[in-house]
From TrEMBL:
Pfam families: Oxidored_FMN (PF00724)
UniProt GO molecular function: FMN binding; oxidoreductase activity
Organism the protein comes from: Archangium violaceum Cb vi76
Protein name per Swiss-Prot or TrEMBL: 1,2-oxophytodienoate reductase
Source organism phylogeny: Bacteria, Pseudomonadati, Myxococcota, Myxococcia, Myxococcales
Domain of life according to the entry: Bacteria
GO cellular component: cytosol
Domain NADH:flavin oxidoreductase/NADH oxidase N-terminal: 6-353
InterPro entries xref list: Aldolase_TIM, OxRdtase_FMN_N, Oye-like
Gene3D superfamilies in UniProt: Aldolase class I (3.20.20.70)
Length: 366
């Protein structure tokens, strides 16, 4: 199938993209002391030079003592780190690309591949790292307020540096997702509650803080997932109605685009419909959505960390869904991590030049 659907331009309010391909946010840990190096800038520039419509940065952390779980994860605060990010966005713009940082706070999720320990306090809604597993003390009101304003400050800095969008990492069992999940949020105050709508309050406050910081024109993308790294089988929303109660306050708070993380984009979200998570999120909110998960590859990404390789796979199912506007944008992770020319090769129908993904790709900035 021709990949034309991927190369239609996209416009939403003041955001215009030349095509529908988004580089998925991928932690690379190549920023010693939290400062992105010239190599990091060149890595993103190569994707901009090769037809990626929108680049989302690796998770980059807001200013809280334990926002990251690896010292080489980039900061999005402090003069040196922000100067590093300025180089990144300037190089991406010079190559004709568009980009946003993914603003991140890991909460109580530790990095299984690192023994490094962040300075306290660790922020987690109820001090739990997974259901029933105490890790630290619950976040105080002051820590919650400080964290919300740290997201706002980072977004203000992103705008000042010239980034085109900001993405909030609200997925995969990290801090914001720890508020959504009943398994890690047992608070009885205004940031907790029996319903998903009530547990969305923290995320909504983060979105509002960012909206206040960037003004009405800069697009805010919110990344969400049903699944957690702590448990792939979790579904925050069991029904479309529950999903609507989750997403509506987040959209009302100022989210423009929902980035719906699945490990395999083709898996239906609810029984009785083929729609995936991004399909349902678009249908329920009317907002543009991004799909993601094993696009163009045979295996899913968490297996890659265990050493599994993947082969190039057909894009036909994805293209059919995109043609009928089930979702608007398509994020591509490992295929673009390994090969900066992936988007260009797809545009030029050079499918036989698409590469396998091997875990060795994680060890370098290609
Ligand atoms: C090395 C690596 C690092 C990742 N880091 C992040 C991250 O910082 N933030 C995030 O939201 N997702 C992260 N992800 C998940 C990807 O954004 C994406 O959702 C996932 O890889 C599925 O897409 P793929 O199948 O095209 O690789 C990471 C994935 C990989 C492979």
């Amino acid at each position: 199938m021709a990949a034309d659907a991927l190369f239609r331009p996209f416009t939403h309010q003041s955001l215009t993209l030349k095509n529908r391909i988004v580089m998925a946010p991928m932690t690379r840990s190549f920023s010693p002391g939290g400062v992105p190096t010239p190599d990091v800038a060149a890595y993103y520039r190569r994707r901009a030079e090769n037809d990626v419509g929108l680049i989302l940065s690796e998770g980059t952390v807001v200013k809280r003592p334990s926002a990251k779980n690896d010292p080489n994860v980039p900061d999005f605060h402090g003069e040196q780190a922000l100067a590093g990010w300025k180089r990144v966005i300037d190089e991406v713009h010079a190559a004709g690309g568009k980009m946003g940082p993914q603003l991140w706070h890991v909460g109580s999720a530790r990095n299984p591949m690192s023994t490094w320990v962040a300075p306290p306090p660790v922020d987690a809604p109820s001090g739990l790292s997974s259901p029933g597993k105490k890790f630290t003390e619950p976040m105080t009101d002051e820590a919650i307020a400080d964290t919300i304003s740290a997201f706002g400050q980072a977004a203000a800095d992103a705008k000042r540096l010239g980034f085109d969008v900001v993405e909030i990492h609200g997925a995969h069992g990290y801090l914001i997702d720890q508020f959504f999940w009943a398994g890690t949020n047992v608070r009885t105050d205004a940031f907790g509650g029996a319903t998903l709508a009530e547990r969305s309050r923290f995320a909504a406050e983060v979105v509002k803080s960012i909206r206040a910081a960037v003004g009405k024109d800069m697009a805010i993308i919110l990344r969400l997932s049903q699944w957690k790294q702590q448990d792939f089988t979790v579904k925050l929303a069991q029904t479309p109605k529950e999903m609507e109660s989750w997403l509506t306050p987040l959209v009302e708070a100022g989210t423009d685009i929902l980035h719906c993380s699945q490990r395999r984009f083709w898996e239906p979200e609810f029984e009785g419909s083929e729609l995936n998570f991004a399909g349902w999120a678009k249908k329920l909110t009317g907002k543009p959505t991004i799909t993601v998960g094993s696009v163009g590859l045979s295996g899913e990404f968490t297996a890659a960390f265990r050493g599994e390789s993947s082969k190039p796979a057909s894009l036909d199912n994805l293209l059919r869904r995109l043609e009928r506007d089930e979702f608007d944008l398509v994020a591509v992770g490992r295929a673009l991590l390994a090969d900066p020319q992936w988007a260009r090769k797809v545009r030029e129908d050079r499918h036989d030049e698409l590469q396998d993904f091997h875990k060795e790709a994680l060890a370098r900035l290609a």
